[in-house]
Amino acid sequence: MASSDATAPVRVVGGWASPFVTRVCVALRLKGVAYEFLQEKLGKKSQLLLASNPVHKQMPVLLHGGRPVCESLVILQYVDEAFPGAAPRILPADPYDRAVHRFWANYADAKLPTALRTLRRMVDGDGAEAAEQVAAALARLEEAFADCSKGRPFFAGDDIGFLDIALGSYVGWFRAAERITGQTVLDEARTPRLAAWAARFCEHQAVSRVMPDAGRLVEFGEALRAALAANAQRT
Ligand SMILES: N[C@@H](CCC(=O)N[C@@H](CS)C(=O)NCC(=O)O)C(=O)O
Fold first, then answer.
1. Nearest-angstrom CA–CA distance, 229 and 132
2. Are 65 and 127 in a shared domain?
3. How far out from the chain centre does Cα 105 lie?
4. Nearest CA to ligand 1 atom 2
5. CA distance linking residue 163 with residue 80, whole number of Å
6. Are residues 76 and 152 in the same domain?
7. In this structure, what DSSP letter does residue 209 have?
8. Among 51, 52, 80, 185, which is most exposed with the fewest C-beta within 10 angstroms?
């Protein structure tokens, strides 16, 4: 079956530790869409992943009625549009608000992943610079939170939405980075609104079961490093 029919089966190809995969699971749970999770093996991409995302060869991939949708932010928008009857909306109703939320989601993706990867690996000498990059990005996002939320609990208002999911997916890795470096990432003094928002986000019913535990992420980071080193030795 090839269809965007809302009743067609939904599968997610990904790994539990990926913040980009977490986004997709949160969006589907928020919409109440049942899905099958196809867990990728560490360091070895499945044929299904390679065939479904031949351009980037990255997870997540959403398969809806057998058709692949790639790139997590594209998938969030797709889920919103393919399941229109299921409340709540993921993207804001207002076009200007949509543009603002997309802007900040793209900003988070431009600034956070590389710096978080550096913190995870604790690369000698690069750690302080990476921590500063994350802190500077979070300071900007603290201002964005004040503008977007207008005093309400989430970027999207009274419930989580696109930007909450996009930024919130990093919270597990913020906490893992805190354990690895011994330094606070979501600082209650520097970014009090974001620190409180992150706690609220993680408690949300669509999030709590799929937000990876920080301790497991620390172990995962070590296992990934070992797998990459073994692969490098073989080639
Ligand atoms: N921009 C992509 C990023 C996806 C991404 O970086 N996925 C990682 C896992 S966290 C991946 O598949 N890495 C394997 C690779 O790049 O070869 C998205 O938002 O979906």
1. 27
2. no
3. 10
4. 71
5. 13
6. no
7. T
8. 51
Single-letter code of the amino acid located at 189: A
Would residue 181 count as lying in a domain? yes
For 163, the domain range is: 95-215
Question: Residue 5 corresponds to which tokens in the numbers above?
Answer: 């029919």
- Looking at the fold, whether 171 and 104 belong to one and the same domain comes out as yes
Q: What is the CATH number of the domain that holds 45?
A: 3.40.30.10
Mutational pocket test of ligand 1: of 21, 56, 76, 228, the residue with most ligand atoms within 8 Å of the beta carbon? 56
Distance (angstroms) between ligand 1 centre and the Cα of 177 equals 19
Same domain, 198 and 160: yes
- The first and second tokens of residue 23, run together, are 């986004």
Specify whether the CB–CB gap between 127 and 119 falls below 8 A. yes
pLDDT tens per residue, the chain (235 residues)?
455 788 999 999 999 999 999 999 999 999 999 999 999 998 899 999 999 999 999 999 999 999 999 999 999 999 999 998 878 999 999 999 999 999 999 999 999 999 998 888 765 567 888 999 999 999 999 999 999 999 999 999 999 999 999 999 999 999 999 999 898 999 999 999 999 999 999 999 999 999 999 999 999 998 888 888 887 787 7
The answer on 184 and 102 residing in a single domain is: yes
